[in-house]
Amino acid sequence: RLQADVYHQRHRNMSNDSWNQFEGIGSRLIQGELQGLWLIPLLALPNAIYIWLWIAPDAWITTTKRATSITGGSWPSDKTGQGDQACKYLAVLAHTIKMIQAACVVAWFRLYSPDSLTPSGVLAQPTWRLILGFAGLAFGQCLNVAIYAAIGRNGVYYGSRLGAPLGPWCSGFPFNIPVVGRHPQYTGALLSLWGGVLLTADDSATAAGFPQVAILWTIFYIITGIVENTEGHGIVSDHPLRPDGPAARKQSKKVA
To answer: What is residue 179's predicted lDDT score, i.e. its pLDDT?
Structure first.
């Protein structure tokens, strides 16, 4: 009887230990997920705005008109001027959100993994991660600069959807890069993001859930790119000089 009692007690202790270990693992996983949750709405915000105004550009024009009235500015009477004004407001909004996002990402690291953003923390990464990380950041920013140089502010900020004045249709760099050329700005953003992940996601940042946050951020960009690529909606870039765009198709029908 004594041996049986000892056996059952030992079995209960082992079960309790196993359950406690399981709870600890689950708690750490949940905590790691939750530590990034407050970032998610801020990361998704610009993509939600881009999808909204891509699908409903007139709503952004109306919003811009109201904002101009509130700030005491003059609203252009012509459609082209209105589109240009809408692009100006969108550029300001986009840059403001990006600065807020950057500040929040830094705050996240300061709260949950303060050593990851220090020079010593970055340089402690393996050599291969340093090389790939800095290369991703450099090429990503190169793409972002290149697209502004190629199509300007109105081209970047949906001027083709908002009716703003546009430059010539661009098929050169960075739009001539295979795969990347369809969405060079989003590709540049993702290369910069994952370059940053390689440089900063040490054990503490990984345990706090930063890679999961980066994956969600990536998904937001992919969804936005898919929406902007949807030919079936008939709203793919309607730049007047796009060779295969709506304007060109209308012209070819007239000629025919």
So the answer is: 76
> Looking at the domain assignment, is residue 26 inside a domain?
no
- Closest alpha carbon to 214 in 136, 127, 158, 114: 136
Record the tokens describing residue 244, joined without a space.
């295969």
Cβ atoms of 109 and 116 closer than 8 Å: yes
pLDDT tens per residue, range 18-72: 445 444 434 444 444 456 678 888 899 999 999 998 888 999 999 999 999 888 8
Domain count, the chain: 1
Residue of 146, 150, 153, 170 whose CA lies nearest to 83: 153
Assigned domain for 136 exists: yes
**Residue 238 structure tokens:** 């309607």
Report the C-alpha gap between 55 and 51 in whole angstroms.
Answer: 6
Candidates 149, 143, 153; CA nearest to 181 is 143
Cα distances from 166 to residues 75, 151, 159, 163, in angstroms, run 19, 8, 7, 9
The residue among 110, 96, 108 whose CA lies nearest residue 38 is: 108
CA dist., res. 159 & res. 87, Å (int): 6
Q: How far apart are CA 188 and CA 139, in angstroms?
A: 7
